[in-house]
Amino acid sequence: MSFLARMKQGFGRTFGYFADSWSELKKVKWPTRKELTSYTLVVLFTIAFVTVYFYVLDLGISELLRLVFQ
């Protein structure tokens, strides 16, 4: 197989990959603006809750260690 034939075969696979990717993206059900807003709010509230939870937990453990080593 000549060099040019191998190059053509390689580029054919690359273009085929992008064509397949594009056809799969057409099958995706994208969220509506309302769904996206509600999902974003859920994520932000979850992050805030977990942050506060670990902050309080860290304060508690720090206070316990301070009392033990004092």
What does this molecule look like?
The chain is built from two helices and no strands. The protein folds into two domains: 29 residues; 40 residues. It is mainly α and 70 residues long. It is elongated. The longest helix is centred in the last third of the chain and has 37 residues.
**Major sheet characteristics:** none
Radius of gyration: 27 Å
The number of helices is 2
Helix content: over 70%
* Overall residue-averaged pLDDT value: 90
**Number of discrete domains:** 2
Q: State the distance separating the first and last CA atoms.
A: 79 Å
Please identify the structural class as seen in this structure: mainly alpha
SSE order: HH
Outline type: elongated
Quote the beta fraction: under 5%
Residue stretches low in confidence (pLDDT < 50, at least 5 long) are none
Quaternary form = single chain
Strand segment tally: 0
Layout: helices, strands, pairs:
Elements: H1 3-26, H2 33-69
Features:
mainly alpha, elongated, 70 residues
Question: What's a concise summary of this model?
Answer:
By secondary structure, the protein is mainly alpha-helical. It has helices spanning 3-26, 33-69.
